[in-house]
């Protein structure tokens, strides 16, 4: 069961991605030269405020080396590799795009983390894992592509242990129609934004209680303003993954945030009762 339509799948298809990454990374050294997750930070963090946002979310979720972590919508694996390197935990990433998963595996081999970090192609609405298998689930800039939020959060709750943590960092609606195209959708028909309040309501109804709840819109706007003053928005390296039009998509996201059409939500929840109980 999935409500991710063909247009969304096509948006993230990214044919030839691994070869483009190899070319882009050649400036850092030969193919057999190990890389660090920090070196890849300008290339593999597909969300507002980049690596800093992932680091803050990990701290808020209190991730430790003993934990098993699932990164839903893991892209090319930046957050998963960073968490494994800095927290010492084992991480599994899932993404709908097979191209992204292939690229994530390649980059993870380059960082020497394949024994600690793995990736699978799967839908966020049908996670291929047993119940209660993870201590933490991470979701960063993913939910905007999914119309069936109740199913998304129920699946996340299902794979979490009781008392486990769900950490989310996502774009929310602040009112008004956003300007498109955007990094996750080229048109309104494939964008499924909710307000922060509506997001919280659906998550809590799925068997969670809030531990951390903060509006990070102002921090995101400050980041955008700073980047706008110093160069392209955001790193031009991200165009390697999403194509030459990514600069326009990212600029539109910044414009929507600055105009108050969109906001950024950071939240951590604890898994309590099973969804629907």
Brief summary of the model shown:
This protein has helices at 6-11, 17-25, 41-44, 50-60, 78-87, 98-110, 149-159, 196-205, 217-230, 239-242, 246-258; strands spanning 68-72, 90-95, 117-121, 134-140, 160-173, 208-215, 262-271.
Topology:
Blueprint: H1 6-11, H2 17-25, H3 41-44, H4 50-60, E1 68-72, H5 78-87, E2 90-95, H6 98-110, E3 117-121, E4 134-140, H7 149-159, E5 160-173, H8 196-205, E6 208-215, H9 217-230, H10 239-242, H11 246-258, E7 262-271
Helix pairs in contact: 4-5, 7-8
Helical percentage? 25-40%
Look at the structure and give the CATH class: Alpha Beta
Sheet with the most strands: spatial strand order:
3-2-1-4-5-7-6
Helix and strand run = HHHHEHEHEEHEHEHHHE
Shape: globular
Radius of gyration: 17 Å
Calculate the mean pLDDT score and round it: 87
CATH topology: Rossmann fold
Overall number of strands:
7
Give start-end ranges of low-pLDDT stretches.
Answer: 1-5, 230-236
In CATH, the homologous superfamily goes by the name Vaccinia Virus protein VP39
Distance between the termini: 22 Å
Give descriptors for this structure:
7-stranded mixed sheet, disordered N terminus, alpha/beta, 277 residues
Structural overview:
38% of the residues lie in helices and 20% in strands. By secondary structure, the protein is an alpha/beta fold. The protein has one domain: Vaccinia Virus protein VP39 (Rossmann fold). It has a seven-stranded mixed sheet with strand order 3-2-1-4-5-7-6, sandwiched between helices. Helix 7 (149-159) links the parallel strand 4 (134-140) and strand 5. Helix 4 packs across helix 5 (78-87). The longest helix has 14 residues, at 217-230. The chain is globular, with a radius of gyration of 17 Å. Mean pLDDT is 87; it is low at 1-5 and 230-236.
């Amino acid at each position: 069961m999935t409500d991710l339509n063909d247009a969304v799948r096509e948006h993230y298809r990214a044919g030839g991605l691994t070869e483009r990454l190899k070319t882009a990374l050649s400036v850092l050294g030969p193919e057999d030269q190990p890389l660090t997750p920090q070196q890849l930070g300008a290339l593999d963090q597909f969300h507002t405020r980049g690596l800093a946002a992932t680091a803050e979310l990990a701290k808020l979720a209190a991730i430790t080396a003993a934990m098993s972590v699932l990164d839903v919508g893991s892209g090319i694996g930046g957050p998963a590799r960073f968490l494994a390197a800095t927290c010492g935990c084992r991480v599994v990433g899932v993404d709908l795009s097979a191209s992204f998963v292939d690229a994530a595996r390649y980059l993870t081999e380059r960082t020497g983390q394949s024994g600690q970090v793995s990736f699978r192609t799967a839908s966020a609405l049908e996670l291929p894992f047993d119940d209660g298998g993870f201590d933490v689930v991470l979701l960063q800039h993913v939910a905007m592509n999914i119309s069936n939020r109740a199913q998304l959060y129920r699946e996340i709750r299902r794979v979490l242990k009781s008392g486990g943590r769900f950490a989310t960092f996502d774009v929310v609606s602040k009112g008004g129609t956003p300007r498109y195209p955007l990094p996750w959708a080229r048109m309104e028909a494939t964008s499924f934004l909710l307000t922060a309040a509506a997001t919280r309501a659906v998550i809590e109804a799925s068997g969670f209680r809030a531990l951390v709840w903060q509006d990070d819109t102002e921090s995101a706007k400050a980041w955008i303003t700073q980047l706008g003053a110093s160069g392209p928005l955001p790193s031009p390296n991200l165009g390697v993954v999403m194509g030459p039009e990514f600069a326009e998509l990212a600029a539109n996201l910044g414009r929507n945030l600055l105009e108050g059409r969109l906001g950024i939500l950071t939240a951590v929840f604890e898994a309590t009762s099973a969804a629907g109980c």
